[in-house]
């Protein structure tokens, strides 16, 4: 069955959440948004392309920072309303210069920083 990006379930703004996961370690790196065109661009180029809600423009991960996400596998959830992009990440994934955006945990009611920025 041929994949068609139009068949995904987008929200009212035409967006779908995309979770980036390191293909080798399984670590969840980040979550960002895609629209139909960024899904197509990601699949065509192998470079993960998101939709920036704040800039209202396409955002190719690593385009300015060099912290590229190379697409390895592109997955849909059972409802087709969330994506999992398995990637090979170059450098940090987070704009805070950390490997993952998920660097804070809540433990015993306290926010705990799990990782420092990469050198």
In short:
The protein is mainly beta.
Poorly predicted residue ranges: none
Strands of the biggest beta sheet: in what spatial order?
A: 2-1-6-5
Mean pLDDT: 96
User: What is the number of beta strands?
Assistant: 8
Gyration radius over CA: 15 Å
Order of helices and strands: EEHEEEEEE
Distance between the termini: 45 Å
Write structural notes for this entry:
8% of the residues lie in helices and 38% in strands. It has one helix spanning 36-45, and strands at 16-22, 28-34, 49-52, 57-60, 69-76, 83-89, 104-107, 110-113. The longest helix is centred in the middle third of the chain and has 10 residues, at 36-45. The N and C termini lie far apart (45 Å). The relative contact order is 0.20.
């Amino acid at each position: 069955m041929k994949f068609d990006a139009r068949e995904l379930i987008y929200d009212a703004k035409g967006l779908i959440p995309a979770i980036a996961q390191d293909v080798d370690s399984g670590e969840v790196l980040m979550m960002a948004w895609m629209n139909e065109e960024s899904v197509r661009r990601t699949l065509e180029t192998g470079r993960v392309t998101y939709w920036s809600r704040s800039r209202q423009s396409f955002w190719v991960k690593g385009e300015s920072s060099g912290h590229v996400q190379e697409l390895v596998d592109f997955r849909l959830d059972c409802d087709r309303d969330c994506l999992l992009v398995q990637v090979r990440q170059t450098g940090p994934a987070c704009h805070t210069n950390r490997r993952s955006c998920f660097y804070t945990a809540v433990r015993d009611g306290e926010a705990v920083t799990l990782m420092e920025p990469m050198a």
